[in-house]
Design brief:
This protein is mostly beta strands. The protein has one domain. Helices cover 0% and strands 65% of the residues. Strand 6 and strand 7 form a beta hairpin. The chain is globular and about 50 Å long. The N and C termini lie far apart (43 Å).
Length: 102
């Protein structure tokens, strides 16, 4: 079952529920507005994880928050240019950067 609503501000919200063979359910809710997307996944035990992305001008910033509160981020800059840089920071502070040039 999915519920979808469209508002005058171009916001789109959707929600879907999955039921496993043991009868437990998980729900995914997504809200999209121009320039950002937010998604929340809630498991059968009530714990949830979120993913929030903002974007525009060839750049994006994504933040992932796990069910235990750990946070990871990914920043991408330079889309639409000759060089795109992606930097990821994990929940324990480890950092990785990738640069692609075309």
């Amino acid at each position: 079952m999915a519920l979808c609503t469209v508002a005058a501000s171009a916001q789109v919200s959707s929600s879907s529920t999955v039921t496993g063979p043991n009868g437990q359910t998980a729900t995914r809710t997504v809200n999209r507005i121009p320039g950002s997307t937010n998604a929340t996944l809630t498991g059968p035990n009530g714990q949830s994880a979120t993913r929030s992305t903002t974007y525009g001008g060839g750049n994006s910033q994504t933040t992932l928050t796990g069910r235990n509160g750990g946070v990871a981020t990914r920043s991408v800059s330079g889309r639409g240019t000759g060089t795109v840089t992606a930097t990821t920071i994990g929940p324990r502070g480890a950092t990785g950067t990738r640069v692609r040039t075309r």
